[in-house]
Amino acid sequence: MRLKAGSVGLSVSIRALEMSKKNRIDLYGKTILITGAGSGIGAASARALYAKGANVVLLDLTDLGTKPLEKEFGAARSLALIADVTKREQLDGAVKTSIQKFGGIDIVFANAGIACDPPTTVRCMSDQTFEHIIEVDLFGVTRTVQAC
């Protein structure tokens, strides 16, 4: 059983962008930290938020997806960092570096998430797999927000 990244947060991301349009939230100059920013919903959200004038901090397990985004956006308003949401010290370091560059973090998009691929039930997955999903999808959100 494989774990697939990027399957959590779709409704949150879409709602946030819809609210931005509806309520005309001004994101210009705001700094937004995005976990799971290297692909899928995280990368798409980073592009949309950057287009609205936000500075974006792009966090993911590797820089394979975030470095190209940083290059696309330019270093003035983006920062790609490696951080695992299951490791508090990595999140603390990423937040510290982000604050040094942008002066603070205004918005946190705790988007990192994993799921089984192919989908399965809790009954059929191992304890280790289930615990890893909870570690990323639940505790990862808590750690990310607390670090900021």
UniProtKB/TrEMBL annotation:
Domain of life: Bacteria
GO MF term list: oxidoreductase activity
Keyword Oxidoreductase attributed: yes
Record-linked InterPro entries: NAD(P)-bd_dom_sf, SDR_fam
UniProt keyword annotations, A-Z: Oxidoreductase
Protein family per UniProt: Belongs to the short-chain dehydrogenases/reductases (SDR) family.
Designated name of the protein: SDR family NAD(P)-dependent oxidoreductase
The organism of origin for this protein: Hellea balneolensis
Lineage of source species: Bacteria, Pseudomonadati, Pseudomonadota, Alphaproteobacteria, Maricaulales
